[in-house]
Amino acid sequence: MAASQLYDQDFYAWANEQAALLRAGKLSQADIEHIAEEIESLGKTEKRELASRLKVLILHLLKWRHQPFKRTPSWEVSIKIQRHELVEHLVDNPSLKPVIASVLQKVYPDAVLGAVLETGFPESTFPASCPWTFEEMMAEDFWPEG
A Pfam family in this protein (predicted)? Predict the structure, then answer.
């Protein structure tokens, strides 16, 4: 079966075959186009992971700030976990650091919509743009007050 056909019909088998070809140095037999596509996809996945964790962190910080009467230990733990996971993700993927500001701007509106859904507050309750820098949000002693 041709590599491109195997790619479409049995990705797991294709991936194992391609790995074996690469390890054996048989680049001429490898499905280079699909391999390149998959590597690019892995990079996009890492950026999406950054965005997802950042969105959750912002959401919880917004709730923390705007619902002080509902603060619970689970919110605090969730914020700490997201901070920790973001640090670990950036240690594993340091080349994502330059895109943090643009990712933050991209995910902030979604975090606000999540806060609207979870708090029941109108969207106008929340700032139009993120009120905190990434560095502030990541600081262990940062707990926004309302």
Answer: DUF29
Q: How many whole angstroms separate alpha carbon 27 and alpha carbon 33?
A: 11
Rounded distance between C-alpha atoms, residue 55 and residue 53, angstroms: 5
How confident is the model over 66-110, as pLDDT tens digits? Answer: 999 999 899 899 999 999 999 999 999 999 999 999 999 999 999
- CA–CA separation, 7 and 15 (whole Å): 8
As a 3-state breakdown, the chain gives helix, strand, coil percent values, each rounded to 5, of 80, 0, 20
* Per-residue confidence band for 32, with pLDDT thresholds at 50, 70 and 90: very high
DSSP collapsed to 3 states, 62-80: HHHHHCHHHCCHHHHHHHH
Distance CA 108, CA 87 (A): 19
Separation CA 22–CA 107 (nearest Å): 37
Contact between 125 and 73 under an 8 Å Cβ cutoff? The reply is no
Q: Please choose, from the candidates 25, 31, 24, 26, the residue with its C-alpha nearest in 3D space to the C-alpha of residue 8.
A: 31
| Domain boundaries, given as residue ranges, for the chain | 46-138
Give the model's confidence band at 146: pLDDT under 50 very low, under 70 low, under 90 confident, else very high: low
R_g (Cα) of the chain, nearest Å: 21
